[in-house]
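User: Some background: our group keeps a shared notebook of sequences we're curious about, and every so often someone picks one and asks for a predicted structure to add to the entry. Today it's my turn. The entry only has the sequence so far, pasted here. Could you supply the structure so I can complete it?
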Amino acid sequence: MNGRTKKSVKSVVCAGIVILALVGCATAPAAIVTTTYEFIPDQSTVQITGWFGETYFIEGQFQLTVDFDEGIASFDQVDATLSAVCFYFEDGEEFYTESLGVLFRMTELESTYVSDTQIDFLLERNIPTFPGSDIHIVLTFMDDSVHLAGGFGPPIFDGPYYTLDAVAVPDPATLILLSLGSLMLRKRN
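Assistant: Of course. Here's the predicted structure to add to the notebook entry:
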């Protein structure tokens, strides 16, 4: 094969992979939806109150997978950072992180309620003397974005409280794939 033929074969193979991926997305059950969201930094914060007041802005993205038929949702691939390093407590020890996913243990959260308008997430730490240490996040679907609100307190007496208040929008590439998938579904029906 000469160089031109190799390029042609490579182009055909790449085009075939893209088409198969799109067809696969379009023929997958419509009840399971995975969307990548990007935080809007000036509308997304973590506030620490208690000992002192600190506000951190959030940049980055996360992937949300929702199975509406089963009523299950999860955060996947959380790649979001705070504007500065913040402290948190785990098992009586102090740690530092810039990761929103680590601070709120987002990939460990379990969905407790799933609807077309809202998803409630919870991580129960089962510490009877510190019931506020359970991590709660409520994700609300808005017109073209999602709002995340929640918080927790570390399991220490008179400790700070961490509050999440953030807005995220779908990643542009995800919107294109969702649009193509819905067009292909319309053509099939």
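Suggested note for the entry: Confidence is low (pLDDT under 50) at residues 3-23. The two ends are 43 Å apart (CA to CA).
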